[in-house]
Amino acid sequence: MNARLIANLRSQCGGPRDGALLRFSLGNALLGAGDAEAAIDELRRALAFDPTYSAAWKLLGKACIDAGHPQAAAEAWRDGIAAAARRGDKQAEKEMTVFLRRLETPRP
Q1: CATH 3.40.50.1460 describes domain 2-104
Q2: Residue 86 near residue 52 (C-beta atoms within 8 A)
Q3: Buried b / exposed e along 19-40 (16+ C-beta atoms within 10 A)
Q4: What is the pLDDT of residues 29-78, one digit of tens each?
Q5: Where do the H-state alpha helices sit in 1-108?
């Protein structure tokens, strides 16, 4: 199912429906399939279409964590917090603040 979904989404890239939502959906599907690096690429493309897309920033941070890039995750969430604040997306702002705090808290 996931492979078919990914193939379908990829077939639409570069066409008239290409945009932030399509790239976000593809990144989400790739992350669900365990391909965090490819998900990162697609989520960055989503953000190139819409730099205020809070959900894309949030998922980009998660993809970076899954790919073993905690510094990139922190940067994504910081940028996402700023974007969410500009957009007035309080829930996404709060969620990314919690994720960032957990990431930056030293573990015993």
Answers
A1: no
A2: yes
A3: ebebbbbbbbbbbeeebbebbb
A4: 999 999 999 999 999 999 999 999 999 999 999 999 999 999 999 999 99
A5: 2-12, 20-32, 36-49, 54-66, 70-87, 90-104
